[in-house]
Amino acid sequence: MTKKPKFQEPAGMHDILPGEQRYFQKVLDTCENIADFYGFQRIETPILEQTELFSKGTGLSTDIVQKQMYNLRTKGGDYLTLRPEFTPGITRAFVEHGMKNLPQPVKFYSFGPLFRYEHSQAGRYRQFHQFNLEVIGEGGPIIDVQIIQIFYNILQELKLKNLIIEINSIGDNQCRPYYKKLLVSYFRSRESALCVDCRRRLKENPLRVLDCKEEKCQRIVSQAPQLIDHLCQECHHHFKGVLELLDEIELPYRLNPYLVRGLDYYTKTVFEIFSQEQKKSEDEKEITVRNALCGGGRYDALVKLLGGEDAKASGGALGIERIIELMREREIKFPRAAGPQVFLAQLGTMAKRKSLKLLEDFRKARILTGESFGKDSLKAQLRTADKMEVKYTLLIGQREALEGTVLIRDMKTGKQETIKLDKAVKEMKKRLKK
Ligand code: HAM
Fold first, then answer.
1. Residue 380 forms part of a structural domain
2. Is 206 among the domain residues?
3. Where is the Aminoacyl-transfer RNA synthetases class-II family profile domain positioned along the sequence (predicted)?
4. Mutate to test the pocket of ligand 1, among 13, 16, 43, 130 (most ligand atoms within 8 A of CB)
5. How far apart, in whole angstroms, are the C-alpha atoms of residue 242 and residue 143?
6. In this structure, is residue 253 part of a structural domain?
């Protein structure tokens, strides 16, 4: 067995090696193209924010704030946290930069790393990436639907199949308090059968018991009262609007009355998008494997909570690593980025110098050009040119360097021709156009 190197990736964090970058780039390009079409603009916020922003914004009762934040104290004595999600930072930026004065709504997209101290398991990392959308300054159901539609379009464009949209309404501060009371009294009478975490949740945030993954809790939850039956008129109307619009654009969805999401700021609509697959377990049983690729919802009270004027908002985020894992698992192919069409080979010191200059001319002319200036043997250079599958190799040997010429070799036909060095870029442009 080879010895493990002394330094390794921190647990739950991963290098993104050059071979994986094209997946990241493909996903980001797809997300950006679609978000662009719908009028979203990119926003970047710092990776570190004040700890209080998350304890207030994400919410004190959430697992994220209770167990998963990377907190630090700076030399100046500030308490900062590595962002575990985008939403509070973007809302802070909206308030801080007075974006309420811009034409509303303001639509933002973001892409970048997030940090959560999670238990190590497949698909759960301590550093991961999201593509995130936020629309601030509009309260209608159409925005909720548009956000779901955009995420669904992105996943479809990436050729991911078996997608399931789950949706629910978790009401607002008009109707939720009464429902919470109903729920607490239901769970209290069954408290001893709940898991330890749920017994704690029952005190701090009883809604979270509804999405516990423990089987014994799920059995109790399946008989629990549902918030959909207790929504106030406004929330009921809003949710009806969302479902009608989803029907209108023929997006397939599933109502899940127990979907509550693990963040405190949500009001009204919440949703998740899963990929679902049948797999064989270790003991050969058919099992359904669900993977949450995306989650989001409306958060009408957060802007005010973080010190801004009232502004309704809605958003969601895609988990990039989970998407890439699925793309690889399902062997989804996409065209490779275009490689070089021309290769510069050189022989001798003077030729090397001329090639270096010629490479710059090709760059300015935007012709992708390969080289291996570090190699001196012509054979080795031509082997590289073959691997790159270029159309033409340009060779400058000692003679060519002295005469100010270059030898063009058509890699398909093997035909060779010598031309003036200063005509090389123009000639290549002409040939590559054909
Ligand atoms: P979230 O459900 O916590 O929502 O995360 C969204 C997605 O990020 C998840 O569906 C999952 O694909 C991915 N994800 C979350 N945690 C991890 C992890 N530890 N490792 C890998 N992937 C992960 C939010 O973050 C909200 N801020 C979304 C939102 C925006 N709501 C409104 N606006």
1. yes
2. no
3. 39-335
4. 130
5. 9
6. yes
Q: Among the three residues 278, 302, 329, which one is the final residue of a domain in this structure?
A: 329
Q: How far apart are CA 342 and CA 390, in angstroms?
A: 5
State the total domains in the chain.
2
CA of 277 to the centre of ligand 1 (A): 20
- The pLDDT score that the predictor gives to residue 332 is 87
Residues 367, 235, single domain; the answer is: no
| CA of residue 319 to ligand 1 center, whole Å | 6
pLDDT for position 1: 63
Last-in-domain residue among 302, 329, 356 = 329
Nearest CA to ligand 1 atom 10: 294
Q: Per the annotation, does 330 bind a ligand?
A: no
Specify whether 314 is located in the same domain as 363. no
CA of 227 to the centre of ligand 1 (A): 23
Which regions of the chain are under pLDDT 70? 1
Alpha-carbon distance values, 319 to 60, 125, 215, 326 (Å) = 23, 10, 25, 11
117 plus 242 within the same structural domain: yes
Going from the Cα of 84 to the center of ligand 1, the distance in angstroms, rounded, reads 9
Residue 361, pLDDT score: 96
The minimum-distance atom of ligand 1 relative to the CA of 84 is 25
Question: Ligand 1: residues whose CB is within 6 Å?
Answer: 85-87, 116, 118, 123-125, 128, 130, 132, 134, 263, 292-297, 299, 315-317, 319, 321-322
Structural domain of 427: 342-433
C-alpha separations of 136 from 266, 306, 309, 362, 426 in Å = 14, 13, 12, 46, 51
**Ligand 1 nearest-atom number relative to CA 124:** 20
Shared-domain flag, residues 351 and 325: no
What is the tens place of the pLDDT at every residue in 349-385? 999 999 999 999 999 999 999 999 999 999 999 999 9
In a domain, 184, yes or no: no
